[in-house]
Amino acid sequence: MQKGFTLMELMVALAIAGILVSSALGLYGMFHREYVHVLAAYDSRSTEYIHTMQKSIRELRGCPDANRL
């Protein structure tokens, strides 16, 4: 009695692995695009908040020049 897998069994396993990998890569791409979108939105809000805080500090100090903070 021989031990091991037949060629057909190996081909089926390889096909299943390929399907799983392709679906995983598709999901990864979708999540990565969403991450980039959320990061850009967060970055723009953070930048706007920082500029607002800097403006408030300049007004409180009576300092029109940002370099003098």
Short description:
By secondary structure, the chain is mainly alpha-helical. It has 1 helix and no strands.
Question: Can you give a write-up of this model?
Answer:
With 69 residues, the protein is mainly alpha-helical. The protein has a domain at 37-63. The protein contains 1 helix and no strands. The longest helix has 55 residues, at 7-61. The mean pLDDT is 86.
Number of strands: 0
Helix content: over 70%
Given helix and strand content, the structural type is mainly alpha
Overall body shape: rod-shaped
Q: How would a textbook summarize the main sheet? A: none
Q: What order do the helices and strands come in, and which of them pair?
A:
Layout: H1 7-61
